[in-house]
Structures are given as C-alpha cells and as structure tokens.
Write a sequence for this structure.
C-alpha cells in the first residue's frame, strides 16, 4: 500500500536486535515509518521514498572494519533531519569527517548515566536531575566528532554520548533510547519528530479509509477467501475486507476439535450473526481427532494438524466460485522478518502465516491489509472497526490449539476436562480484573494421574498446571505473580467444578529457559 498521503520517516537498519522498537516508539507518536536494510537504501530509493526525516539504527558491526555498513552519502545532502543511534552515530561521524576507535576502554554495556553539556531541543524534558539513565551497548566509541557537531552529553565510556549539528538538524546518540532501560527515551523520539515537523497524521481512522480504498482497487469484482481463526489478526483483517468488498468475502472457520469451550460458537456467531459475514463453519473434529489418535510426540501432532488444516481449507475454498484472492493477517513484524539483513528482501511468506503454501498451490493472490501494522495498531484498528473488546483483547491462542496444552496422547475425554478447567481459570482471572495485565494464560492437562480424597472417597484423576505469563512480544516472558489467595481459590474451583482433576499446580518457569506453551 502506498503512503504518499502520509508524512514518512525512514529507519535505515544496520542490524540491531531492537530496531523494531524504534518503529514502535514512532508509531505511538502517530508518525508513519518504515524499516529498510541499509543495503537496500540507494540514492534512487531515497529519492522515491522522500522521507521527512531519517533514523540510523544500531548494529553489531564496527565502522572501523573495512567494508562495514554505511548510509548513502547523499542522505546528508537532502536537507532533512537525521538521528543516529549507537552504530548509526558512529557511521554518521565517520562519514561526516569524525573518528571512531575500537579497543580497550571503548566498550560500555548495560545501564549508564549521561550528564548534560549544554541545552538542546532534542533533550527537552531530560535532565530534571544532573544525570539521565540510558542503556549502552557498544564496543567502539567516537573519539573525534565531525566538523559542525557539538557535545551535549557524556557518559563514563562515551565522551560524545550526545552530539548535534543543530544548523543541519543532525543528531547522534551513543545509547539506545528505544529500549525501556532508557526510561525517558520516548521523550527523545517525541522531540525529534517535533523538530522534524511531523504533524502526527498516522491514525487508525486514516489507515482504515486508505486500506479500504486499496483493497477495492486490488480486488475489483473478484472474490476473496479468508481463513478465520478467531484470533485478533484474522478477525480484524476479515472485518476490514468485509467493509471494503462486502459479499465478495467468504470466511472459512476450520473447527478442528481443539478449541476452547464455546469458542466455535462465539467466533462464528459474532461474524455470521452480528457482522453479517459469510462464514463457512467447517466442522472437521472427527477428521483431526481421528488422525491424532495414538500420537504423543509434540512435533508429530503439530505436523498432522498443519497438514490437515491446509487440506481442509483447500477443500472448502475450492467450492467458492470466482475466488482469486486469499486474505491473510500478516503483520509488519512478519514483513520485517522476511527481509534478509545480509541478502535483501525475500518474497517467501513464512510457513507460520495463516495458511502458508496455499497461494502458490491454489493460484491465489494475497490480500494482506495489515502488513504495515504492529500488533497494538491492529487492536486499535479493530476498535475503529467496532469489533467487541472481548475479541480485540484476547490472549494469543496457538494454531494447534489445545493439542499442545495436552502433553502426551490426545483423547476426547482429556480435551473435555481441559476445556472446562481452562474456562474456570480464565473466569477467575477476569473476575479478579487481571486479564489485561497478562500476556497469555491457560491450563495444561498433565499426562499423569494422582491419588486424591474427595468426601470419604478415593480419587485417581488427572493433575493440571496453570500457566500465566507477562511479556511484551512473546519472545521472552516471566510468570505472573498471582497471590496465594488467588491460586488457592482457583484450585478449589477447578477441583470442585471439573470432574477428572484432583490436583492443581502453578508453572513458575520463565522464558527462557522454558517456552510459554508446554509443547
């Protein structure tokens, strides 16, 4: 989708692990930005993209190495504001006439404190005290600043921690303002986009209008099919495409028998009855559970489910006349990850996308209306489209469903027990007002039985584990610190209300070393 109507900021990526966080900070300020690998940013690209400002990211290389990454020299003659971060500062200094050194005494990793060396608009709201906490991660440092630059902040191992050439609107910092370990970092980005003259025209209302126009132009009078999982991404994509082309959209909801309690009814009911979408409810529980019978290896279970899903989706899609497009809920992080830092862009859609492999097989073209959005922006768009809060704020749910929350062999009886226990657990979390504080919460039914006593009788039933984690992006996670009172109350409810469980445990493993899901 072209964004010529929006003010645009370009982030040139030199390979930092946290470049996406820069984009997140800018999007939160209603500034549209895109991340592109440095080797793709040519003079012609810059002229075509026409950014209002540019940020140079950090990176793992050393500018002292021959052949190390550089920004296009033409960037510094465009008359636009430029901000260099860490490696971005170092290549900026090197290219503009300064010097960077490596070796003993140049490294600085972790928390550091910068002290001010004069007033600078970029730092408005900083230095309420005599120092500001930042996060450093550099092995080299600037030893001589480029002509025209002035020092505005120093740290113990970075004598040029903050520098600027105000006349040319060039700014450079050695630390990472995008990470939460730089507590006031967001303010620095806010100041930069204000100095660059951004009006903050990137809103979900504006995106909605532009996306609808783009979908109509792409699809024309053809038919679109969408694999609807009930998750946030596919739900928002379906709602947006339906608003654009109405009855030209058909959604296929594959019910594999591994969903949570009442999930199929809720998803199909919302889209079919309340949003007037054409939804095919593919009830294929017997097929999936039959193929999974006797299987206990987690990878085998995943592969069976993935293959069957594609087969079933294709079966129903083949019955839809005039279908030329497949809708997917691809997000911007997926797009970024599909671009090789060392080898340029890749056209391969990753296999974990909704129905990887189907477009080529079926001769369909992709419609990906969310491919420029982060997860939080998708939620905001969902609210803009009027989707219920209960759908927009849902915790992530894996494609294989309850299969990977049921270690060992899967049976219908175990799945029924698991559904009921999970429903009680989530109900408890909601009743205590904790749902939105938790990234993901679920119950896993364990492949062991334990002896218990209920009333005057002996029981020999399953044990289950409660799991709840906090996270920013799912890459790392920590367990949620429930009170003992909450855990005790929840365990009592599960044991009393769910026949088949007589023991409840709480999983306090972080990620790493564990994973969020059990399989």
């Amino acid at each position: 989708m072209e964004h010529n109507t929006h003010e645009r900021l370009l982030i040139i990526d030199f390979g930092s692990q946290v470049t996406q966080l820069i984009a997140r900070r800018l999007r939160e300020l209603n500034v549209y930005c895109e991340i592109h690998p440095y080797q793709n940013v040519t003079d012609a690209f810059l002229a075509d993209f026409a950014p209002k400002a540019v940020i140079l990211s950090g990176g793992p290389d050393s500018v002292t190495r021959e052949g190390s990454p550089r920004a296009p020299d033409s960037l510094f003659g465009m008359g636009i504001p430029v901000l260099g971060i860490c490696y971005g500062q170092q290549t900026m200094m090197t290219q503009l006439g300064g010097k960077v050194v490596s070796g003993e005494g140049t490294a600085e990793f972790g928390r550091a404190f910068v002290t001010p060396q004069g007033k600078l608009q970029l730092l408005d709201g900083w230095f309420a005290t005599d120092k500001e906490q930042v996060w450093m991660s550099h092995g080299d440092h600037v030893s001589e600043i480029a002509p025209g630059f002035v020092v505005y902040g120093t740290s113990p191992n970075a004598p040029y921690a903050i520098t600027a050439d105000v006349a040319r609107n060039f700014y450079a910092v050695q630390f990472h303002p995008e990470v939460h370990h730089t507590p006031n970092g967001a303010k620095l980005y806010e100041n930069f986009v204000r100095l660059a003259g951004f009006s903050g025209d990137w809103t979900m209302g504006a995106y909605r209008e532009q996306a609808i126009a783009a979908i109509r132009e792409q699809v024309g009078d053809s038919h679109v099919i969408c694999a609807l999982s009930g998750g946030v991404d596919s739900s928002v994509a379906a709602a947006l495409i339906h608003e654009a082309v109405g009855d030209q959209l058909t959604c296929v909801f594959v019910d594999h028998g591994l969903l949570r309690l009442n999930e199929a009814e809720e998803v199909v009911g919302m889209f079919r009855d309340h949003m007037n979408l054409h939804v095919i409810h593919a009830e294929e529980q017997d097929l999936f559970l039959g193929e999974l019978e006797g299987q206990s290896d987690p990878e085998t279970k995943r592969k069976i489910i993935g293959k069957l899903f594609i087969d079933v989706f294709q079966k129903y899609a083949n019955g839809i006349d005039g279908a030329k497009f497949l809708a997917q809920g691809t997000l911007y992080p997926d797009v970024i990850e599909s671009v090789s830092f060392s080898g340029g862009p890749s056209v391969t859609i990753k296999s974990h996308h909704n129905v990887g492999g189907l477009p080529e097989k079926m001769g369909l073209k992709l419609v990906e209306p969310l491919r420029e959005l982060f997860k939080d922006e998708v939620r905001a768009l969902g609210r803009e489209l009027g989707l219920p809060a209960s759908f927009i704020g849902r915790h992530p749910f894996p494609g294989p469903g309850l299969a990977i929350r049921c270690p060992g062999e899967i049976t219908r009886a175990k799945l029924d027990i698991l559904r009921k226990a999970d429903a009680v657990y989530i109900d408890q979390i909601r009743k205590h007002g904790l749902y939105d504080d938790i990234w993901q919460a679920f119950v896993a039914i364990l492949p062991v039985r334990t002896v218990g006593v209920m009333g005057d009788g002996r029981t020999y039933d399953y044990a289950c584990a409660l799991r709840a984690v906090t996270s920013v992006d799912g890459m790392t996670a920590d367990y949620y610190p429930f009170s003992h009172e909450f855990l005790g109350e929840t365990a009592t409810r599960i044991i009393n209300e769910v026949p088949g469980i007589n023991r409840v445990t709480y999983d306090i493993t972080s990620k790493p070393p564990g994973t969020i899901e059990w399989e």
User: Anything to note?
Assistant: Residues 292 and 300 are 9 Å apart (CA to CA). Confidence is low (pLDDT under 50) at residues 340-356. DSSP finds 15 helices and 22 strands in the chain. The radius of gyration is 26 Å.
